[in-house]
């Protein structure tokens, strides 16, 4: 089952939700290093994306790249807001029972469900993007077959969101109306899963994998975009020069101007000439 459902079920089996188990994880060095990478790559990602946006619009894969950018922003927003609510609940609210706790746990469930849906949609879009990239590189004459219009791509994306939201609604139905068996039957019919023989309970493994995906995909999307080609990498390196680094780190949310002509000339002169041709 979904990890958001497991969190809700764990709450029903205890009188008070204990957040002390989260503290050892927060003290983990690996998690700290990952958080550092996530929040240092974020402004660089925004900066490079804004500089490449007009050029990328001519690409067949731009609708997917643009959607990744929006979901990365949304993921960071939910993480920051969720962390703030967690601090408010832990430090400022003494009443841990009644309506306040119910609202808080319901908010956690909704936030986790949204993050899970974003993660799964991005995984499907990554498969589509990799297929498009393969065709572009190895079958360049077939570009028209994969050049979806912006309207068509939006329909595909919203259809994915509708399908996965329906899946989450089934889980929510089973959680709040104690119709677990009915929800499981619907879930198995719609989303068949192959069960393997594992040491740990299957639902815990699935929850752990989904939580890991939700945490890793935004950062991996940023790092892969920054390093996917030489031009993006060089644009990032230019933005990290001493004279540009403060603007990159603290002004990432504002529209950035294009790189100077000298910087662009330097990047293009070292890149593959075929990669920097300007369409006539």
TrEMBL record:
InterPro entries per record: 7TM_GPCR_serpentine_rcpt_Srz
The residues that cross the membrane are 29-48, 68-89, 104-129, 156-176
Which of UniProt's keywords are assigned here?
Answer: Membrane, Transmembrane, Transmembrane helix
| UniProt superkingdom | Eukaryota
**UniProt name for this protein:** Serpentine receptor class gamma
Recorded source organism is Caenorhabditis latens
């Amino acid at each position: 089952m979904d990890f958001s459902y497991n969190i809700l079920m764990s709450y029903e089996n205890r009188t008070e939700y204990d957040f002390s188990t989260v503290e050892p994880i927060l003290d983990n060095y690996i998690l700290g290093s990952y958080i550092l990478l996530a929040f240092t790559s974020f402004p660089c990602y925004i900066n490079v994306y804004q500089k490449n946006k007009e050029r990328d619009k001519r690409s067949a894969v731009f609708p997917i790249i643009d959607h990744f950018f929006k979901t990365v922003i949304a993921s960071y927003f939910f993480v920051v807001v969720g962390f703030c609510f967690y601090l408010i609940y832990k430090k400022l609210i003494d009443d841990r029972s009644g309506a306040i706790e119910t609202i808080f746990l319901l908010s956690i469930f909704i936030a986790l469900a949204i993050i899970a849906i974003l993660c799964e949609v991005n995984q499907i879009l990554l498969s589509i993007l990799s297929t498009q990239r393969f065709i572009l590189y190895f079958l360049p004459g077939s570009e028209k077959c994969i050049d979806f219009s912006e309207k068509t791509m939006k329909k595909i994306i919203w259809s994915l969101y509708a399908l996965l939201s329906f899946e989450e609604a089934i889980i929510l139905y089973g959680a709040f109306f104690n119709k677990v068996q009915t929800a499981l039957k619907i879930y198995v019919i719609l989303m068949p899963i192959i069960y393997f023989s594992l040491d740990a309970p299957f639902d815990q493994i699935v929850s752990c994998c989904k939580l890991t995906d939700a945490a890793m995909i935004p950062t991996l999307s940023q790092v892969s975009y920054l390093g996917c080609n030489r031009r993006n990498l060089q644009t990032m390196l230019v933005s990290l020069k001493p004279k540009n680094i403060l603007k990159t780190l603290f002004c990432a949310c504002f529209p950035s101007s294009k790189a100077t002509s000298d910087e662009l000339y330097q990047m293009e002169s070292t890149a593959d000439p075929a990669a920097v041709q300007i369409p006539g």
